[in-house]
Specification:
heterodimer; A: mainly alpha; B: alpha+beta; Alpha-Beta Plaits; two-stranded antiparallel ribbon; 36% strand; YCII (chain B); YCII-related domain-containing protein (chain B)
Chain lengths: 408, 107
């Protein structure tokens, strides 16, 4: 990648949501904002190689997008003058209490995560408008056709406009309920960044993980007493801290037991542990994210895999199962059980999940590993084959192929 | 912005409590706050008549246009700034009527 291409990629990562959010605020229309932002980036791709990268790419993009939007609105106004005013999105000035932490992107994310939209629509809309992913990338991430994702986004935008879903941060009394919906979406975005799908993307997309963290930090500043916000932030930080050790120089995923723990980011770990301690000190019953953060705090406190307090991990998973009795939680609990009670006990628990998780690559990865440890090579190889077939992350596929080929 | 607010009844969960006093009180508040445009309770669907005059002559038939376990028990029209306000009031309306509520914007 040359310098200009790199500058465009960086600008897209850093400025996309800002441009969409600023234009939505100015023009009161998500469609106009999205299209104008996309056009501005296309213009950058055209012009920057010849004209050079502007000194302030963000300002250049916002100005260019604003001009594109004005052009479009002028064109449309000629066609149907009357409807324009009536259909534009409604937004109030933000409540004053927001002060310095107010951010157009936060306003954008609350609109994208509005409870009047279906959950799938919220995720797709947030990834497109806040995360800047293309429809194709979102389709890959959620195993859908591009047509289905495009339609989901179009319908959601149409509902926002027709039903007049406001473009603002919710009032103080509505905030806690609205935040839960936002956290779900942010965690999905983070996960897509942490285990990016698709042959053409980096295996770990730091742009998505750091955007998810950045927005979670913003929400934490807004709601410092919300345990789940703190929990999700701690969880993301403790996972992000391990990123430097997670992909090898040859582009292969490195499992937790083989990671170079010296490469972990100590500052992020310290911050994550501090948040977990603060939540424990409140004595309030933890929610899902706080429990997951606590599990990751146990992992990041251990010098190596053998030093890990697995009984503590299993106890935390037991707590999580009570809140969320889903097969995926049961699968993760079984992985910890393997360390505590051995692979045979764990495999029995994993095999019980066959019906629910047969199409989930992590189920086959777990089985393959447990079968390998039990010396059942042939079955392990079959499970690796299945896992390789289902895995969408390039680094994970490389790792699985090596593990399979090492089987005797 | 105007919204049609429909009160959805369910024939499987009959309810004999008289909710009219609470609804009247809620209506007075809607009026005082400037949100009330219209409100009306509806007679049962067995009192409905369907008219179809798309053909040669008008055809009148007995009953609602769709047979369903759920039916419209009444409607409001509210004037509020945005969907958040409409949903907040609809949450109260759902309690007051002890029914599901559908909120739908006018064009």
């Amino acid at each position: 990648m040359n310098d200009v291409e790199e500058a465009i990629t960086r600008a897209h990562r850093e400025e996309w949501a800002r441009v969409v959010a600023a234009l939505t605020r100015r023009f009161g229309d998500l469609d106009v904002a999205e299209e104008a932002a996309a056009e501005a980036f296309a213009t950058a791709v055209e012009r920057w190689p010849a004209d050079g990268v502007p000194p302030n790419p963000g300002a250049w993009l916002t100005t260019t997008a604003t001009h594109k939007a004005i052009d479009r609105i002028r064109r449309e106004n000629k066609r149907h003058d009357k409807h324009k005013e009536a259909q534009s999105m409604h937004h109030d000035d933000p409540p004053e209490s927001l002060g310095a932490i107010d951010d157009d992107r936060l306003r954008l994310i609350f609109t994208c995560c509005h409870p009047a939209l279906a959950v799938e629509a919220r995720v797709a809309l947030t990834l497109r408008l806040v995360g800047g992913l293309t429809v194709a990338e979102i389709a890959r991430a959620f195993l859908l056709s591009e047509g289905a994702v495009g339609q989901r986004i179009t319908r959601a935008k149409a509902k926002i406009k027709a039903a007049r879903i406001p473009y603002r941060v919710p009032s103080a009394e509505d905030l806690p309920a609205r935040v839960t919906g936002v956290l779900t979406v942010l965690y999905l975005v983070f996960n897509e960044g942490y285990l990016a799908t698709g042959p053409d993307t980096d295996p770990v997309r730091q742009d998505l993980t750091s955007e998810a963290i950045r927005l979670t930090r913003l929400i934490r500043a807004l709601l410092p007493d919300d345990g789940e916000v703190a929990g999700l932030l701690a969880l993301m930080l403790l996972i992000e801290a391990r990123r430097p050790a997670r992909v090898s120089a040859s582009g292969e995923l490195v499992a937790l037991d083989e990671q170079d723990r010296g490469a972990w980011d100590r500052a992020l770990i310290a911050e994550g542990h501090q948040l977990v301690r603060e939540r424990l000190a409140t004595g309030q019953a933890p929610g899902r994210y706080q429990i997951l953060a606590a599990i990751n705090a146990v992992h990041t406190s251990a010098r190596d895999i053998r030093d890990t307090d697995w009984s503590q991990v299993v106890a935390l998973y037991d707590q999580l199962v009570r809140l969320d009795p889903s097969p995926i939680v049961a699968l993760n609990r079984a992985i910890a059980v393997a360390e505590l009670d051995g692979p045979e006990v764990a495999l029995a628990a994993v095999d019980r999940l066959d019906g629910a998780l047969a199409g989930y690559h992590a189920y086959h990865v777990t089985r393959a590993d447990l079968l390998r440890r039990l010396g059942r090579s042939r079955e392990s190889r079959e499970a690796y084959d299945k896992a390789i077939e289902l895995a969408g992350n390039t680094a994970e596929t490389a790792y699985l192929i090596r593990r399979r080929d090492q089987l005797r | 912005m105007r919204y049609l607010v429909s009160v959805i009844d369910d024939e499987n969960s009959p309810d004999n409590t008289d909710r009219r006093p609470a609804i009247s009180e809620f209506n007075e508040r809607l009026m005082a706050e400037g949100h009330w445009v219209f409100a009306g309770g509806l007679a049962g669907t067995d009192a409905a008549t369907v008219v179809d005059n798309r053909g040669e002559q008008a055809v009148f038939s007995d009953g609602p246009f769709v047979e369903s376990k759920e039916f419209l028990a009444g409607v409001w029209v509210w004037e509020v700034p945005d969907l958040d306000m409409a949903l907040k009031l609809a949450s109260e309306a759902s309690k007051v009527c002890d029914r599901k509520i559908e909120v739908r914007p006018f064009l």
